[in-house]
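Suppose you are handed only these lines of text.
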Amino acid sequence: MKSYNIPFNKPGLAGNELAYIADALQRGHISGDGAYTKRCHEWLERELGVARALLTTSCTHALELAALLLDVQPGDEVIVPSFTFVSTANAFVLRGAKPVFIDIRPDTLNLDERLLEAAISSRTRAIVPVHYAGVGCEMDRITAIARDRGIAVVEDNAHGILGKYKGRELGTFGSLAALSFHETKNLVCGEGGALLINDASYTERAEILREKGTDRSRFFRGQVDKYSWIDVGSSYLMSDMLAAFLWAQMEHAAEIRDKRRRIWTRYRGELAAWAADHGAGLPFVPEHCEQSHHMFYLLLPDLRTRTALIEHLGGRGILSVFHYLPLHLSPMGVKFGGRAGQCPVTENVSDRLLRLPFYNDLTEAEQSEVIEAIRSWTWTS
Ligand SMILES: Cc1ncc(COP(=O)(O)O)c(C=O)c1O
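From them, the structure of the protein bound to pyridoxal-5'-phosphate can be written out as follows.
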């Protein structure tokens, strides 16, 4: 495999990760719901203002928990953007639901709320907005439509921790929301996630489903004298060793946020003129959104220019990547009736979007190299 001087992602250490893992070992509790998990839960509940936060093994698993909590059944429909990671849809498909793919807005690349009403049917159980790149979806409209129809909203906030929409934290709009701490995200622990619960009526059952269908959480709190099998469930707890790693990141969340903001702002500032001259688009952040600075992308004129730029950057030892392939056109999406032309913005953007190297410890010199490589690139159309 080709190696790159400037990778696309590099998980960064905030400082105390190894010390806290050693401490977790010393405490003799490295399974789930130990001292570090508790700290992470309290931090999330305080910083985000959610009723309850539960660490999970991934964002995918937090979404699966959400689907279980909503009692999604075979034949139910769940509305998701086509331009997203597979887990947004798969978590509900696992329960037998049919994903209904809708297109994205051409400006923020978020689920287009203007298409929602036409996509709703009597079988719609949930809407899953994804705050793409940590820029908030139009939550006023989405929650109003969902409320009117009695449909649940589950926010996939894998990208947007600490981002805000109209001054309110992303992840606090849906009855449930999911976070990711995968190594490519803003705060990381390798693999990890969290379920955020805003509708407190889900809390007790969420604890049970996450603990293999047992009331072990109540037992640990001394509320029952033995724990038993109560409900369906699975094993969704994060090991306290990973929670120890994550706690070290949470402690320095403000610093991490500042670093990412600096990187994002510099890319935009130094590539704006180049983008205007070359017909390329840059990320759009509405005035009423405070983004999480999760990623920086270019929207190239077409697939050919994107491929050429990837090669040009690769030749200089810089790895740039693209995503997402439209879900409605994937082999699974087609089984659910997906067809070409169904989500034209998604289909177009998917060919043109290019993500630039973006990680907390990207140095000024490395970023200069990336910017210089782009600015010096010429292509013939
Ligand atoms: C929008 C979105 N949702 C969900 C996920 C899944 O996250 P995890 O890897 O923590 O399961 C990702 C992963 O990149 C994602 O981008």
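What can we learn from it? The first helix runs from residue 17 to 27. The chain is about 40% helix and 10% strand.
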